[in-house]
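User: Here's a protein and a ligand (nicotinamide-adenine-dinucleotide). What would the complex look like?
Assistant: Let me lay out the input and then the predicted complex.
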Amino acid sequence: MQTIEVHTKSRPSTVYCGAGAAEKLKTIIEGKDVFVVTDSNVFGLYKDFIQNTFGSAPVCVLPAGERHKNRNSLFMILDKMLQARLRRNSTLVAFGGGVVGDMGGLAASLYMRGIHAVQVPTTLLAQVDSSVGGKTAIDHRGVKNVIGTFYQPEYVVCDPMFLKTLPPREIRCGLGEIIKTGALDAEILDKLERNAERLFDLAFLEEITADCVRFKAGVVEKDECERSGLRKCLNMGHTTGHALELFYKRRSHGEYVLIGMLLESYIAEKFDICAHDYAEELRALIGKVLKRVPRFENIADAAGVALYDKKNQGENEVSLIVPAKRGEFAELRLTDEDYVGYIEEIAGGLA
Ligand code: NAD
Ligand code: GLY
């Protein structure tokens, strides 16, 4: 197990990463007034673990899935926190995937203007990305993550044992964010390419999870609240990914990130930001995880949703974070009209 410290200005976080990490939970919560947030699927699988670890702490079980990442679920958590008479020194434990983590984190940041938060990510995606760095959010009126806060958890506990119950599709989603990290960090990309045939192997995933957490910690330490522009790099592929996710709602976040990265890699090539060979290399890695690009109906309307992306600065402008060279990224700003045209053309060519 590795211990990774995230030295952020607002509040430092300690991430325990690897086999045995979950054993740290007993010490983390010792003597604390704990409140657990989870979802219905995770509760079904880990009810005994939750009871053994958190004893008689109240547990708020949310309906599972991105479509429930909304104000109803947020207020369900806040109501239950109030009923449980939590105080400022209470600790909220978000036990689940990225949806539970984002909403639990948001509730912890809002209740009494902020209580202690611990993240126990149970999906690969949440372990390699969403549980670290303090972004919290709900979706609202068709806009992804539009209501949220930056609120660092005190502890993050990433134990690979939780991945054993994850369906392969969810492993694929986590690999989406892992490949994104590879496109930002040359060493991680080398490792992914060397292990291209072991991407779904749990021992390999445990190792690469720690690499991704360490990389993300470095970015978040330098630009905690996405002010300098550096943290935007973590949104590679996400402008298109989020737009398709909100419009089609059929797949999961990680799958749409992979599709977003794939489509945007062609745009980066078109603008000579990314050389053809390197773009092909990234696409080959994406292809190991995403076997087929689905045929998208009304892709122009779907791409139009990108106009609401938080990275955009001007009116009618869409900002994309695209790969440049190995370990480097660039921000590309396009008019919405050009962006939609490119996505339509590229997706049409791949279908
Ligand atoms: P999720 O939380 O919906 O989990 C995916 C599915 O796996 C759900 O059905 C869940 O119930 C189930 N599940 C969770 N743990 C399980 C386990 N151990 N075994 C079996 N099933 C399990 O989705 P996700 O992919 O974990 O996270 C996606 C969310 O994360 C999106 O809302 C996205 O916006 C957000 N996100 C946030 C950040 C951030 O920095 N805060 C970064 C990336 C993504
Ligand atoms: N996943 C984007 C971020 O944490 O900034």
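Summary: The longest helix spans residues 202-222.
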